[in-house]
Amino acid sequence: MTEVEFIKNKRGKWSQLGVPHKGWRCIEIEDSEELSCNCEMCESQPIRYIHHMNHTDYPEILKVGCVCAGHMEGNLIAAKKRDDFMKSRNSKRKRWLSRKWKTSSRGNEYIKVDGYLVTIYEKNTEWKGVVKDLTTEKPFFSKRKYFSSNEVKLASFDLITKFLSEK
Prior knowledge:
Blueprint: H1 3-8, E1 25-31, E2 37-38, E3 46-47, E4 49-54, E5 62-64, H2 66-73, H3 76-96, E6 102-103, E7 109-113, E8 116-123, E9 126-133, E10 139-141, H4 149-166
Antiparallel strand pairs: 1-4, 2-3, 4-5, 6-7, 7-8, 8-9, 9-10
Helix pairs in contact: 2-3, 3-4
């Protein structure tokens, strides 16, 4: 069965009283990098790209697949665009480390991409990074400890993806 059939056949929460079927809002989307869980709305479809759905009349945030998200918010096109965005970002992430990074006068690697400036640097045997929004000039500093430049580069990419998905 497909996710559409799960909805049509009222699988999972689609058949439960007290669970709203419309009026949901996507507050985040993430790539779990594999079919890691089942949609929490139809409770049947394995999902990789997880749409986090919020509703004012429901106490939990549900992690759902693309089709359920589209039906829940009443906009299949918006849900599909989010899914396509994450698929595109996943393919870019695979190439992220092989991109040509420049070196600043201080010896730090940096790259300008998608309206952000990413700078990474080593400090006391740890790697750190800063992602600066070039529109607002607001910097976002890494708080975690990274043990390699590649780790902080990938974390920076994931942060930019999060920012772009929220726009």
